[in-house]
Write a structure and sequence with these properties.
Radius of gyration: 18 Å
Length: 257
Amino acid sequence: MKNENAMNFRLDGKAALITGAGRGIGLGIARALAAHGCAVAIQDIDISAAKKEAKEIIRHGGKAIALAGDIGDFAWPKKWVATTQKELGGLHILINNASIQMEKRWEDLSPAEITRQWDANWITPMLLCQLAAPIFRRQNWGRIINIGSIQQRQGNPVMTAYSATKAALENLTTGLAADLAKDGITANTIAPGFFNTYRNRHMFKNGKPIRDHSDWIPARRVGEPRDAGGIALLLCSEEGSYITGQTIFVDGGLSVR
């Protein structure tokens, strides 16, 4: 007997394009969506990593493809969208996860370094949203998730440009949400805190944090890539259809410390 009160997180028949998903948070999200029936296009500048993870998802019964390309190169977004539609039969979910982060004091950043981060972290996501929105409108269904950062709300003198791009991405999310809600499209931001990812590898030694993270993260642990998967799944599923324009921090309580 069907339980009409049961929650539905399945994404069968849906296809997602996820940038920077060859490892880290993007991969955690790709795995979560694939496990619930979504076909996933795994984009990563490291194409070998993307291919490896796509094969792993396929091995577990899912559907996935790997996409190459540099998020700072504006020639790639059209190719990613077109290939996803062709190979996966459509496009229903866009997750702008890939970004470039330069840890350098703000006074020392060159114009080229500032521009590189803005190109990758804001302009390419904007271009992808411009490409995805008409597709989503035609099918009266779509999900956009922009991956922000706890840095977008907290000043950091060695990541000022990066933080500014993430704050701008959050503003893009709210603008899209207000405009697209009537078309059955949601747009939200997931803002991770400190995660155990490849990007943060320099802060770990022998698998353990160099610093005592229990002193500054209320949850007393760092995030793992799968920690971002659950909230992404909610936002992409029918159960998340009334959530839009929101920024959801996934940070073990760090933002409210």
